[in-house]
Amino acid sequence: MLKANEPAHKSTHEPALDTLPDPRQRRLRAWLTNVKYYLGLIVLIALGALTSPHAADGSNIFLSAANFSDVFRQVANVGVMSVGMTLVIITAGIDLSVGSVMGFGSVLTAILLTTPGSNTASWTALGLDAVSIFIIVCGVGGLLARRKRAKGASGVHVRRHGPRMAVGFVCALLACAYAWHQLPVKVSLWTVLWMVPLAGLAIGALNGWIITRGRMQPFIVTLAAMVGVMGVARLVAGQDTAVYSIYSGSNATTDIELLRALLFGVVPVPTLFFVVIALIADFVLNRTVFGKYLYAIGGNEKCARISGLKVDRNKIAAYAISGMLSALVGVLYAAQYRQGKADAGVGWELDAIAAVVIGGTSLMGGVGRIAGTVAGVLIFGFLGNILLLNNIDSNTQLVMKGLIIVVAVFLQQTRMDPRTMFARLGGRKGVTTSPAQRQASSSGSAAEKR
Questions:
Q1: Cα–Cα distance measured from residue 306 to residue 304, given in angstroms and rounded to the nearest whole number
Q2: Which of 14, 95, 234, 407 could pair with 342 as two cysteines, CB 3.0-4.6 Å apart?
Q3: At what angle are helices 348-358 and 394-414 packed, to 10 degrees?
């Protein structure tokens, strides 16, 4: 029998009020989601300061300006590469060719700086640069034309590719003529800074074109590119030359030393490249339509296509940017270590992927932040520095890096929810929640998607 004030029908779909997540818990979880990687970095720096050996004068070696400068110099190259990798992984892709493109870029840099006249490296760079400039001009022209059509009156619009292609061809010809004029003498650093990255852009665009047009897995395509580009780099360098040495003022111009300088005596120039590129990429992802498209493609590519997004073009652009930044790292590497090597970037792709994953970017796509990638790069850099100062061998460092990657992915999948963590570790799929609970907790996880 029903009691006096009991309703005749109880809703079986509405959860009890005491089972709904506390708003304070949701806010705390959202805050932890945003700052968890920075907290890890702060804890790591504090640990390094506590465990650091001391110099003869009693100063803390880890906290010294010279040590921080070394760390910033070491992480700058991987950091620039990781920014491009972040864009690719947000689209649910992967780029395993970044290390080989970096080695290829170092070889082109070394040969262009030290060997006057036309050679295999100069012809290769000029050809790839012409392709890149043609693609950039045609792409920008097409974007401007679409915006003009969108603002104009409705009606039938005739697409005219001829003028854009003609302008692209002329721009590519002028740029190659400018570079060709410098080949009889040693190429300047400023010319190398645009020739080599554009060569990497062409390689990345080719990767993206094969992936999108051939409907092939990014893992397979970029794995093949990793092997093929390294082979091209060795062919360009020559069978008998494993390393091209660079001596400023001797076989190369002295302006190469600018990339080895320290700003204010602490900040290396490569670190400045890293900071500027990271800021630009963060702005692009959060403030531009292109960035929103990348998140949409990674979140659900099929829905993005149905919505009318140019999925293929945006994915090609992401891979092209990744290739361009990897080749730029080759320039920075050649300037720092005064050499160009075809295999200089072996294993760097794994470091870049690890830094991106540590920074919270999901390998499934659609979720990621440049700020998190920067934190991941710094975590790896300071971790290696701490282990080195405490005389920990390199093998142990690799083990610890592997453990950190596994823990980071586990935290991503469980969204730092203790109940889900214990459920996963106990062999259960997770904690069952009602629709109202999921809707109430969704606001806490929405911050992850930016």
A1: 5
A2: 234
A3: 40
What does pTM read for this prediction?
0.84
Torsion 107-344-347-290 (CA) sign: negative
Residue 282 lies in a domain: yes
Can you say how many angstroms the Cα of residue 64 is from the centroid of all Cα atoms in its chain? 29
As given in the structure block, the two tokens for residue 440 are 């109430």
- Burial code (b: 16+ CB inside 10 Å, e: under 16) for 146-157 equals eeeeeeeeeeee
DSSP letter assigned to residue 155: S
Q: Indicate the residue type of 22.
A: D
Which CATH number is 336's domain given?
A: 1.10.3470
Q: Could you report the per-residue pLDDT of 12-41, keeping only the tens digit for each?
A: 444 444 444 567 777 776 666 667 667 778
- Domain assignment present for residue 17? The answer is no
- Token pair for 80: 């620039």
Whether 142 maps to a domain, the answer reads yes
Report which of 369, 200, 158, 222 is spatially closest to residue 284, judged by C-alpha positions: 369
Q: Which domain holds residue 313?
A: 31-52+62-148+162-417
251-271 residue pLDDT tens: 777 788 888 888 887 889 999
Which DSSP letter does residue 252 get? B
d(CA 15, CA 63): 53
